[in-house]
Amino acid sequence: MADSTTGTAGYDPDDYFAQAVTDFTGYTIPPRSTLFNKLSSSSSDDFSDLKLFRMDIQGMDIRAVTAADYSAIGGWQVNSGEDYDLAFYDAGGDGAHSSVDMKKARIVMIGVTVDGNGRATLWSGGEITGGGAFEGSYSHVQWDSGPMAQYISGSKLVLDHLLSSPYSTQGFSYSGLSVTDDNAVDMLSFERTGQSFDRVVQFFKDHSDIVNQWMTSLGEDQAAWKGKAASLFWHLLNELKTNYDGYVSQLGGRDFTATNTTLGGTVPQSKLSDALAAAQKALKDAVTALQAAWTDWASDGQHDPHYHVKKILDGISQWVINNNINHVLEETYVTEGGGGTTYSTDANFKQNVPDYGDLTQKTTWQKVADAAVKSWSDHADAKLKQPSIDALSAVKNAWADVEDAFAQEVKNKNNETLSEVLQKEENEIAEEEAKENSDNLNNSLNNLGDNLNNLGDGLNNLNDGLNDNLNNLGDNLNNLNDGLNDNLNNLGDGLNNLGTNLNTNLNDSLNNIGDGLNSSLNNLNDDLGNSLNNVGSGLDDLNNNSLLNNDGSTGNDLGNLASSVLNPSLLNNNDKNGSTTLNSPTGGTTQLNGDGTLTTTFPDGSTQTIDPSTGLVTTTNPDGTTSVSQLNAGGTITNPDGSTTTLNSDGTLTTKFPDGTSQTLDPTTGQVSTLNPDGSTSLSQLNPTAGSFTTPDGSTAQLNSDGSLTTHFPDGSTETLNPDTGQVSVTDPSGNVTTTHLNPGDSFTNPDGSTTTLNNDGTLTTKFPDGSVQTLNPDTGQLTTTDPSGHTTTTDIDGSGLPSSSIDTSNLNGSTIDTSGLNNGSSLDTSGLNTTGLNSGGLGGGSLNTSGGGLDSSLDSGYDDYDSTPYTGGALRSDALDTSTVAAASTGEQSASGGTPLNPMGMGGMGGMGGGMGGAGGGQGGNTERTRAVLTDPAGGSARRGRTNRATSVDEDEDVVYTRPTTSSAPYPVGGPGSNGAGQNGRSTESGDRARDAWLTEDEDVWGTDEGGSPAVIGR
User: Fold this and answer.
1) Nearest-5° angle of CA 324, CA 328, CA 332?
2) Pick from 135, 28, 113, 40: nearest CA to 304
3) CA distances from 865 to 7, 597, 648, 802 (A)
4) CA–CA separation, 397 vs 400, rounded Å?
5) Radius of gyration of the chain from Cα atoms?
6) What is the model's pTM?
7) pLDDT in tens, 3-40
8) Listing from the earlier edge strand, what are the strands of the sheet with 53-60?
């Protein structure tokens, strides 16, 4: 048999067993999906391209069936040259027919083992078989069972080979597939490499002791050696000892204790050697676990693919006995000429096997072959897949720890060079010489000081003379000062007279201003009184026009008018009593964000944000995926909890829940009207969450009180950015935190792909993948959003833009309005109007007098105008598919009218089945929008948050946390170039390992020897 060697792994992507065998041993077993490509029936056969068997269907004289017609009952090869027989009746279809034929499916297994008598046999538990290319003795078709043997038996043998001394797969070969030298795995290479590290550690230990002895013999470093060769030699020895001791310490220390022992029985003497021993043990344990999984897979013989072919054929045989042969009728008739027998089928007769089809069709038997291959593969996965995944993951995790040990670089403890030592000592010598020169200079300077002292005495005498002259000059200056004081006093008197005149004239001017203001306010009071009188007259006219009753009391029409004009939605309490969350009947919660958007969190973990001003709906699923849709005025969407939300033409949102509850929310006021299932209505208030807003990609952001910005992304990660310090902290979905620093002008990439820039003015600009841009001013809370089309909107994310009313509606009780003061012909009472004007005392006695009335400053509003332009946009449709489950079943009753059963005993069921088989039982957005007016800051400043001064640049280390997963099922190669080891000198000697001569010469009978063209045997 020719040897086929390949070093390229070609296993199927989802075949973890093949991956583990290949990675752990270097034996590149073929893909499972190709094992039976060369074990299929010839393309020239009537039933072509059937995996694992070939067949034909033979016509027969109609008769009653016998046990010999079914291999499931009578055993294999009852008929010479045929492995499996299955007789059935063909009436052209299911149901009652007046005529019927008898046929037999004759099947020969391909690639099956045979016994000494040429009978096909199945593998026993744990049996190992060989394979290779062979030719059919009758059909002369070329087949190859080598790939099947390599995958099933070769995988077990190579695992056994690796776990036996010398623990290497180098030179291993089975059924035409060998392990190349480049792919061979040698488990002893771990300890050989580890021993090399142990020898290095021992070298440094020994030579550190030798160097220490040399230094002891030389003695301590002496001052006389400085700058000389002796000093340099001593420092060289000291550097060697320091570094040698450092190497030993970094590799585990002089008293290192290992935690592992190698396959060869050696005990590691260094940290790296111990890590390699741990890696060796992890590989050995994984190979052992894989070996045990194979043993479990093959324990009952189901690792033989032909086992699954027979299992399916046995099931079809049972079905034929129950549904086919028991429903054939035989009727004998007599005529003058003799008589005869007719055959027919009753209404319950069937020849279409469930899941496969008509027994006479090729497609039916193609499905049988495919089902057998799938049954074998599914059983292999059930036994091998999870143990293989666990083994691969265990090796990867263990080897990651080894990588950590080797990632620690061994460094020098002393990096000082001899040149640096020499330069240092020369500098010390120069310093000592400089000190000596300095001492000599100090002595010379001391002598100079004595001479200067003598000079000082002479200067003292000169100073006494100068003091006398300066005293005389001082007396003259005092006389000059007295004259100047007299002149300044006269100037002060003149200035006092000027101040008196100015004060008198200023008081007169201010009194005149007060008189003018009093006159203007008197005129204003007169005009206001006249206007109020006109209002009273107008109300009298309303009374005459039936809004007031004839007796002067209020009519119902006026009450109705007031009730209709003063809509309760405009009369909210000014303090906005309510909650920041709205609960739904399905368990969801809704939050009104500071930018006017609404965010709802549903029980399944999904979130949905609706922007009433644009109609954009952003939905984030529990897995983090995000979708964006358009909700137009009048349109409706279906929410994840089964409720539906409609955007009304007035900008409100109505949500209808499955239990009949309906909630209508006005995003501009926060008012919620709930219609309960019993018909009752309740009102509540949803207050905005200050500082919160949404981003174009479905993230939610919160501007915190300290000025930092926290963003929650769809993938579950969270990011907090502090503009004051430039610190950015990102927490990924697994809880790992990464911290970095952002200087003004720098940009940072967020988990959703957007980029955030810290501008020089402290604002934050974020650019999103769809082209949208958001700029946030953390000091003022102002958020500016520019969509991909260039349209810009600005909001205040404090949520203070929602209007409220200060009108007191406590007296609107549904009855009439009190109009008792509106008498016919009378005018309004204006006694409360102050017409006295300003205090005639002028400004000197106080400011303007407002005690008697004037304008009420509490009516001054701090709100801007509100643009109520209705939103119109494109269409949006979200239809939910209503599905239902339909189940139907039918049963048939046997009818034997018109004749007697051909097979009255019904074959007695399948009680005798298995003989001879060894127990084989086993939209487009709108172009207009509704915008929220922004509250202006009454203080005109940025006192909304306490902020520290922002640093223009920070230079500091960045701490980055790297984490490594502890489990994985991804592939991790084991074998590598350069591995070597001993070869294999023989095959396994276990009880099931025997070579089988599976390809015997068949009987000389061939097809077509019987008259009528039907072959006597089908042949192997």
Assistant:
1) 170
2) 113
3) 78, 20, 22, 12
4) 5
5) 52
6) 0.47
7) 444 557 789 999 999 999 999 999 999 999 999 999 99
8) 53-60, 101-109, 84-90
